[in-house]
Amino acid sequence: MSQISEYFRSIFFPNLGITLRNIGDHINIGSFEVRFYGIIIMIGFLLAYVLVTNEAKRTKQNPEMYLDFILILIIPAILGARLYYILFRLDQYIVQGDVGATLKAMLNIRGGGLAIYGGIIAGVITAVIFCKVRKVSFVLMADTATFGILIGQILGRFGNFFNREAFGAYTNSKMAMAIPLDYYRSDGNLDYLERTGVITQKMLDNVVNIDGMDCITVHPTFLYESLWNLLLLVFLFIYRKHKKFKGEFALIYVGGYGLGRFIIEGLRSDSLMIGNTGIKVSQALALVCFVTAVVLLVINYVRCARKGWPSVEMSGDTETEVEPGGETTPDETEVEADADQKAGRQGSDDYTEK
């Protein structure tokens, strides 16, 4: 990106009166180019570790287990996110007659091209295997990991900001973000973005001139999603002492994120599509996540109400439901039965969430 003039690296929020100058997308260490996208992902993993281990300590779990899991997770999560993205854009990466160039294009993630759903799917598969081997509750780990997933997503979207990608359709609203067309023209990507519909005709028909530069004005959907995830994280921090059943945090995340992603994805112009159906992959999956999570939450809340809203008691690496008055009950409100959980109980310290 060094060939792009600093003049074209500006990003504007004209209706808010905000101008950001010389916003690059990488730093150079010697002759090696390090993308901010990758740096942000690594910072996300580090902050995820901090939040997850904090939650593990709060609930009397072994925080070192989560360090082991995060170290194991890094490669599968990135590969899953990349593979998911590539599967829906194969034509962008296949170089006819050149397997080496094709593989090189597929493996080059420094410029972006990661899909969060692919990372989450890979993470779930990795977590299931990890929990089976360690003989711990997958549901409990999912609740705890939710805090880390959210902080990773909050930060990760800013990688899209530096890459000037994952933006939405044309808008002249208060939140409109203006990007100089010469930024993409200098990078050699303008024709491709126009051809694939990422930069739409409506954007080109409504170009505005700011500081002598023709700019498209679009929805900053990266920011919308980041703020939505921040709200979810704040809610979980406020609510976490009132946990009603195992798997509740994970379901709140799945439902909440699904709702926000469904709405925000509808604004984007670069969505992955299901073949030629015109249906956006992420929007369809978000709707499934939202509906499934809401159904499971309602089922479990009804069960809790029938039992007088029991609390959840921690003992080592397991959770036990406790009815009002202190009497323990069977694990009827656990979202997913975990046959290995009993074998994995450790420690005797008690922690009660009310």
Structure notes:
The chain is mostly helical and 354 residues long. It folds into 2 domains: 1-25 and 169-218, no CATH class; 31-168 and 219-353, no CATH class. The protein has helices spanning 36-58, 63-87, 90-93, 99-107, 116-134, 138-163, 181-187, 190-195, 201-205, 221-239, 248-265, 281-306; strands at residues 11-13, 18-20, 26-29, 32-35, 177-180, 208-210, 213-218, 311-315, 318-322, 350-353. A 3-stranded antiparallel sheet has the order 5-7-6. The protein has a 3-stranded antiparallel sheet with strand order 9-8-10, with no helix packed on it. The chain has a two-stranded antiparallel ribbon with strand order 1-2. Helix 1 runs antiparallel to helix 6 (138-163) and helix 5 runs antiparallel to helix 6. The longest helix has 26 residues, at 138-163. It starts with 10 loop residues before the first strand and ends with a strand. Belongs to the Lgt family. This is Phosphatidylglycerol--prolipoprotein diacylglyceryl transferase. One of its GO terms (molecular function) is phosphatidylglycerol-prolipoprotein diacylglyceryl transferase activity. Keywords: Cell membrane, Membrane, Transferase, Transmembrane, Transmembrane helix.
Detail the topology: elements first, then pairings.
Blueprint: E1 11-13, E2 18-20, E3 26-29, E4 32-35, H1 36-58, H2 63-87, H3 90-93, H4 99-107, H5 116-134, H6 138-163, E5 177-180, H7 181-187, H8 190-195, H9 201-205, E6 208-210, E7 213-218, H10 221-239, H11 248-265, H12 281-306, E8 311-315, E9 318-322, E10 350-353
Antiparallel strand pairs: 1-2, 3-4, 5-7, 6-7, 8-9, 8-10
Helix pairs in contact: 1-2, 1-6, 2-5, 5-6, 6-10, 6-11, 10-11, 11-12
Biased composition (Acidic residues): 316-338
Membrane topology: Multi-pass membrane protein
Region (Disordered): 313-354
